[in-house]
Amino acid sequence: MARWLVKTExxxxxYADLAREGRTAWSGVKNAAAQIHLREMATGDEVLVYHxxxxxxxxxxxxxxxxxxxxxGDPTQRLAxxxxxPVHALTRALPLTEVKAEPRCKAWDxxxxxxxxxxxxxxxxxTWIRVGTRR
Length: 135
Known about the structure:
Elements: E1 3-8, H1 15-21, E2 24-26, H2 32-40, E3 46-51, E4 57-70, E5 80-95, H3 96-101, H4 109-112, E6 118-120, H5 123-132
Parallel strand pairs: 1-3
Antiparallel strand pairs: 1-6, 2-5, 3-4, 4-5
């Protein structure tokens, strides 16, 4: 099982929206590197949801419910999307400032490639985040 992080602007689609809806197609991703990561996602993979904009924090945990398939909003059918289901909101949002201050995160794409909207989460980073944000 792989672990991922996806980014969203909370004013457009927040973790609370995913929790309320129960499932969503994670679509509209156009960046080539992010598309590669979307296509690598498998059913059952765990996903951190990160709010961009003013929030800049990891806020929730989701799971891949359907692996990559053609993005229905893409008329070219070149883009992929995945379906996500919520697992739970984190009891404590993890701000980007804390991520940047953590030595285990220095090489992580969230710190190095701030504009990438879908990325893998290294095992040591995942463990650090999950231990620090437990319910």
